[in-house]
Amino acid sequence: MTGLTFTPDPRPHIQLLGGFRLGFGPTPVHVVPGAQRLLALLALRESPVPRGVAAALLWPEATARRAAACLRSSLWRLGKPAPLVVAADDVLTLGVEVDVDFHRACALTADPGASPDAVTVLKAELLPGWAQPWVLAEQDWWHQARLRALEALSENFLATGDRHHAHEAALAAVQTDPLRESAHRTLVELHLADGNPAQAVRQFQRYRRLLRTELGLEPSPHIHDLIRPLLRSAR
N or C: which end of the chain has fewer CB within 10 A? Predict the structure, then answer.
């Protein structure tokens, strides 16, 4: 896998990373909010969703009758450009021809390899700005999965001698979760491997200040052990 850039494929594709987008090849398609939510729900679930469940999740403030009507309206709209949604036996599924960037990104978290393009994919947030309960759980999973993948990616780059991209992946993990110690520890180790002890100490000190300010905690002995010899020699 080399990335999630869309190709000139005439099949419909749904982008969930970095924001919602529906397109056919390079051509974007305008989708009303209700239909966007329906497509996103089906893309995230990857399994048949009963109509009643979809209506209740997507229009939680509406009555059951009103929610069902909104669902019918969204399905009618989505039936215009292509068979994006399949309705059978009172359940809904995404059309088999629909490509979803998030599905490929999930596969990347299981095996990030050592592709520079993977850093860009793993840095992207899932449906930023969406706060529906059924989205929040997926966002939390993606947040943790991509952090682990970025750290693994950094290790893979380092194993191949590519310290530049190893540093880029580790930095992306720190930017994604500034309080994640394992990501800071990876950056400290990379600075030490590059022969930059001063930068390693600065990285540690930035993390320690942030941790104290945000949580009133101290870094673990593990990261302290990396820096302690340098702090002794500076005295």
Answer: C
